[in-house]
């Protein structure tokens, strides 16, 4: 953990796994998630460690009370990222794209994967650079404990 740091509002370019692929991505304000703890997980389809941990992160998100957003930094079109996630069975994560790397720079996510933990007040409270053991019982309990407090 680290001292909470306020995060200014920004747009997340969200991809839906269902619906019309041609209308995506769609901007969603970060502030619309205020009051909900969030994990921003920066990854790429070409990143070996990212791909290794993605199935476990997807399972973690299935029953989590935390908003889990996987931010893909690939330069490929959003439709290809959507297709990739559908083929890999990524169904429990919300997806965002960051093909221009604006969000990655904002969060200093220079190494992949990078996971940023944001409390319900919209403040960054910590981060992990590198893979996370999403299914380890103690890790899951620790994440929920620190993110689900007021």
The average pLDDT score comes to 88
| Strand arrangement in the largest pleated sheet | 1-8-7-4-5-6-2-3
Distance between the termini: 15 Å
The helix content, as a percent range, equals 25-40%
Global Rg: 14 Å
Counted beta strands: 8
Number of helices: 4
What fraction strand? 25-35%
> What's the order of the H and E elements?
EEEEHEHEHEEH
Secondary-structure-based class equals alpha+beta
Largest sheet composition: 8 strands, mixed
In terms of per-residue confidence, which ranges show pLDDT below 50 for 5 or more consecutive residues?
Answer: none
What can you see in these coordinates?
With 150 residues, this protein is of the alpha+beta class. It has helices at 48-62, 78-88, 102-106, 137-147, and strands at 5-6, 11-15, 26-29, 38-43, 67-72, 94-97, 114-118, 123-129. Helix 2 (78-88) links the parallel strand 5 (67-72) and strand 6 (94-97). The two termini are 15 Å apart. The mean pLDDT is 88.
